């Protein structure tokens, strides 16, 4: 079994030679899973701005640093989106909540991550416009508070270029990291 696994991994490595921002691994079920490390770009409905501290845009949810976070303005069903640059079969999406780590951040900031929905579409959402909850193929959802992180597994037939993370609530949205898993 181990020999077969190494043979498959070697074949994948040869096929992916020269492809950047992609890594692969075996998941817990022994199947090969490709993780798209850094999608082509990311965007969100809006970026929150104030005079007290700097907030960052959509791209920080892809920077690998769990001490940074993206932050939208106040919206009904705020959203964040990754442009994968091409169509992928998405297998799962991990969303990591903003850490509550500095004194002026209240516990309510951590609790804003709720009613999570993750979906995939081939139609690029428009920055500044609301995104209908039914505008994309739903991978899955996690009702209620998200907690520190949430893993959303997608059904077998989910293909698309854009991965959408959305909170089904009226509030701001801030998340630390989004990790997208799938393959071409």
Output the keywords.
184 residues, globular, two-stranded antiparallel sheet, mainly beta, 12 strands
* Total of helices: 2
Q: Helicity level, as a percent range?
A: under 10%
Number of domains: 2
CATH superfamily (homologous) name of the largest domain: Galactose-binding domain-like
DSSP E strands, number: 12
Compute the separation of the termini in Å: 25 Å
**Largest beta sheet, briefly?**
10 strands, antiparallel
Structural class: mainly beta
> Average pLDDT value?
80
In the CATH hierarchy, what is the class of the largest domain? Mainly Beta
Beta-strand content = 35-45%
Q: Could you please describe the fold and organization of this structure?
A:
Mean pLDDT is about 80; it is low at about 15-20. The chain is built from 2 helices and 12 strands, in the order H-E-E-E-E-E-E-H-E-E-E-E-E-E. Strands 1, 2, 3, 4, 6, 7, 8, 9, 10 and 12 form a 10-stranded antiparallel sheet that branches. A two-stranded antiparallel ribbon has the order 5-11. It is globular and about 55 Å long. The chain has helices at about 1-15, 105-110, and strands spanning about 20-25, 30-35, 40-45, 70, 75, 80-95, 115-120, 135-145, 150-155, 160-165, 170, 175-184. The longest helix has 14 residues, at about 1-15. Helix content is about 10%, strand content about 45%. The chain has about 180 residues and is mainly β. It folds into 2 domains: about 1-35, no CATH class; about 40-184, Sandwich (Jelly Rolls), CATH 2.60.120.260.
């Amino acid at each position: 079994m181990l020999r077969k696994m190494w043979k498959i991994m070697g074949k994948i490595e040869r096929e992916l030679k020269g492809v950047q921002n992609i890594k692969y691994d075996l998941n817990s079920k022994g199947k090969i899973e490709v993780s798209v490390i850094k999608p082509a770009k990311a965007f969100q409905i809006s970026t929150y701005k104030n005079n007290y501290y700097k907030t960052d845009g959509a791209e920080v949810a892809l920077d690998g640093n769990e001490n940074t976070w993206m932050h939208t303005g106040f919206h009904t069903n705020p959203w964040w989106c990754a442009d994968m640059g091409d169509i992928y079969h998405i297998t799962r999406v991990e969303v990591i909540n903003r850490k509550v780590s500095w004194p002026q951040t209240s516990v309510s900031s951590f609790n804003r991550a709720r009613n999570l929905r993750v979906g995939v579409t081939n139609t690029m959402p428009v920055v500044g416009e609301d995104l209908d909850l039914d505008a994309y193929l739903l991978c899955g959802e996690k009702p209620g508070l998200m907690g520190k992180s949430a893993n959303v597994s997608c059904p077998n037939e989910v293909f698309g270029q854009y991965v959408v993370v959305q909170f089904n609530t009226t509030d701001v949205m801030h998340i630390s990291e989004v990790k997208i898993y799938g393959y071409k």
